[in-house]
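Researcher: Let's continue the batch. This sequence belongs to UPF0342 protein ESZ50_04175, and it's 114 residues. Same format as the previous ones, please.
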Amino acid sequence: MINIYDTVNKLQGELVETAQYKTLRDAFAAVQADPTASEVFGRFQTAQADINATMQAGQEPNEEQVKNWQAVATEMDAIEPLKNLMQAEQALNALLMEINDIITKPIAQLYAAK
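Model: Same format as before. Here are the structure tokens for UPF0342 protein ESZ50_04175:
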């Protein structure tokens, strides 16, 4: 019997060797090394968590939550280490989406067969 978790654990080990992961790791280290970037990033994470908690409770974020999140996001756009972090996250996310497409291809083919 196959243990798919062995394969996934191997993939996890290989993921941290990709250029996308290393770029993200380095970008995050740069954010942590910059006091302004680190503080703004912390506020962004707090605002994001607040919105996520509201949505998980089955509610829509209120205007104040949205405005707060947008203000912090706009502030992030002006800070180079944070811009680099967001770009690195997007690149890693693209890789993960490609991997997900490959992994779920048999399911898509199953449903596509008529």
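Researcher: Any comment?
Model: The chain has a mean pLDDT of 96.
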